[in-house]
Amino acid sequence: MATQEAGKLEWRISVDNGTTERLVPRSGLSKRIFLWLKDLVMKVIMERVAKFMRKAWRIGADDPAKVVHCLKVGLALSLVSIFYYMRPLYDGVGGNAMWAIMTVVVVFESNVGATFCKCVNRVVATILAGSLGIAVHWVATQSGKAEVFVIGCSVFLFAFAATYSRFVPSFKARFDYGAMIFILTFSLVSVGGYRVDKLVELAQQRVSTIAIGTSICIIITVFFCPIWAGSQLHRLIERNLEKLADSLDGCVAEYFKENEVSTNRNEDENTNMKLQGFKCVLNSKGTEEAMANLARWEPAHGSFNFRHPWKLYVKIGAAMRRCAYCLENLSICINYETEAPDQVKNHFGEACMKLSSASSKILRELADMMKNTRKSSKMDFLVFDMNSAVQELQETLKNVPIETNKPEEVPSEEENKVDSEERTTSMSLHEVLPVATLVSLLIENAARIQTAVEAVDELANLADFEQDSKKKTGDNNTKQPPLSS
Amino acid sequence: MATQEAGKLEWRISVDNGTTERLVPRSGLSKRIFLWLKDLVMKVIMERVAKFMRKAWRIGADDPAKVVHCLKVGLALSLVSIFYYMRPLYDGVGGNAMWAIMTVVVVFESNVGATFCKCVNRVVATILAGSLGIAVHWVATQSGKAEVFVIGCSVFLFAFAATYSRFVPSFKARFDYGAMIFILTFSLVSVGGYRVDKLVELAQQRVSTIAIGTSICIIITVFFCPIWAGSQLHRLIERNLEKLADSLDGCVAEYFKENEVSTNRNEDENTNMKLQGFKCVLNSKGTEEAMANLARWEPAHGSFNFRHPWKLYVKIGAAMRRCAYCLENLSICINYETEAPDQVKNHFGEACMKLSSASSKILRELADMMKNTRKSSKMDFLVFDMNSAVQELQETLKNVPIETNKPEEVPSEEENKVDSEERTTSMSLHEVLPVATLVSLLIENAARIQTAVEAVDELANLADFEQDSKKKTGDNNTKQPPLSS
């Protein structure tokens, strides 16, 4: 805008002084076009930059831990740079301070577990490959003319073996980075030894610079606002349990709510968000497994001991995913083309809502157990509630109005009333189908929630969650779950 | 074994010569214990190594491409080592040949796309960060006493910004590695410039070594048995489509097969494998997205042009996953506690089998379209078949025996016969529930398959798959789908 105004100014001046020089307006015009084009390009670029910045800002606002991580990277690099600026330190590592900087850049990860994993991998692989490389170099020098051949073959073989080992899943999960550093160091030492004279000294300096780099990383990652992979995983599972509970409640309520409301489906963005919450759980496998792997590298912190059973989180995650598959298919019922008649909905509504609320109560209790790392004293009651809700729903199925010869068996007044009302209008299984699907998915979901309960219980026992003494105060938490994200 | 036999030998000798020296048997005993322990430890180690080797062997046997990749890494490293061995080449890059080796180790990935991605990232980020670093270094030297301060601040700021950008998903998907290399190079150049005199020369040498390393990687990865991420993704989708078809057929057949057979469920390992095939699809999202991202870096190869619509593979994958969720829940019906009565099964069996075979035919046709990169001339018929199977199943629902007032509408002889047979035995919705669930899942699955068909059609149009002219010869392929893996 400022440039455009400057252009206008130019133009006006040239008109005023038009008598002295006729060419000025034309050059002013071309300048205007140039400025206008520049303006346009700048605008487009600025818009894209602004969009990127807005996206970046939102990421930071959603998860301040990411901003903290970036600050820590800057800090670690500034710290390690001191080795360059201070003569004694620089000379102390024989001018190889560069390796310390490199170590910090490649090793510093956003959580403690990943940083530890990379540090250990880097140090161990460097020492191992370095000594092997020196040994091969020695053998090569002894073999006279075949030196190049010996080095070449050994590089080929070790590179082959190390690369191959990276394909073995159990090895890859822990030592992938180490295998790469092994190849790197081995090649550098064995091949590099061909030209470098003081190989052992060089190796020593390199190990010490790497040690300096890794220690700076570890100190900063642990002592400045540490971000623990374990805690993140723990919170992820907790949040996912809450999302499942919200989705379950939301889906069933959505299905059984009055028709006039359901025409205006997008009335509430928030409700829709909750309904879709289970989708985060569907594809969480990779994240959970990666984080559980990283969490194993972390020292004891917060309420997690050194040998915290992180593998169980993967198991809990798998159980939750199975619940999410059920919820995914609940959407079939909601979007079914032929809506079930109202009397069918009324017949099943109460029992379904009861089961879904009993199920989601368990999910919320599990989330609360995770949140406060406590055992639950009322879980047994909740599971019992859920199972009796399942029983009740199955009874309701047996008393379904399209069926004619059984209602005598359970002659409760309310159901009899509904029955007599509905036996007049008969309906086909076709109409009942969505409700029937909903019912069987809810029953299956209840069974799957039970496996989740077992997995969390196992975790609570193995990880020594504290006994649920303050049950009364905890109760409020359970009923008003935090609805973050 | 050999050591144990050696031990026995020792023992016998000492007994034979027992008269001359009494101590020998005792020392033989301790030696035996030592040998036995050594043996035990060796055995345990050997067993673990053997287990690891067996696992590694199986990985290689399952996917020879992995072995090829390892050989290529060895080859690339041996090639790049030549720079060390040959004096003129070594001197040409001022003794910085080490950087070429390093580039090869960190840049060489198992498929062409990943290698290209890393090469481009590394080169661009190095040049960008190198020039920026030199600029900052120049500014710093001009600022006299504040030199260290200027360098320190710039390193902190750029490290912060680059690290932060790695959290933006769209940026991370393409330039994650580049951002790391940017931080690395910038720190090395700007900080390193504090001690190095010929900074520009150093930067030039480094760029040229990196160029050498990346070109060796690109040449080897493209010209020696190339492994294309795109082809892998294409085959993955194709195989997953086949797995879905097998699982669908298997699940429905499993449900409707005769009872006496179903008691012996584990009779066929192969059948079980097929039933579980859909599980690979459930968690394929991460792999598919990663491969689609990498495939975009690849040049034209095989039947894939440069701008092949790789993003559509993600869409197809998503549609397939939605089918897999349906299949996952089909297992509910199979494992349902109360099995549906035989007459119900008989009533629905034919229609369900028809729908499932129509659906799986479409999936196999899609797999065949992918395999031969051809458009399908008979897809419309297959979809029509599937939709009429859905219609038929819905009709069957309307004529379900527990319903009493509608069968007059569709008075086909066969169904009337069944009806009259079954109206005598009444049953509750409770008993019909598993079948009802199966039916609604099958119908939903058909709808989801249609979205997959649309996605594959879109791909076929955008990627210019060839017209299906040799329909007659192709026909056989479709009916005998390859049941690999």
From TrEMBL, chains A, B:
Membrane association type: Multi-pass membrane protein
Superkingdom of the source species: Eukaryota
Keyword Acetylation attributed: no
Keyword terms, alphabetized: Ion channel, Ion transport, Membrane, Transmembrane, Transmembrane helix, Transport
Endpoints of the signal sequence: none
Listed GO CC annotations: membrane
UniProt-annotated stretches for the region Disordered: 400-425, 464-485
Record-annotated membrane-spanning stretches: 67-85, 97-116, 123-140, 146-165, 177-196, 208-229
Family designation: Belongs to the aromatic acid exporter (TC 2.A.85) family.
Name under which the protein is recorded: Aluminum-activated malate transporter
Organism: Arabidopsis suecica (Swedish thale-cress)
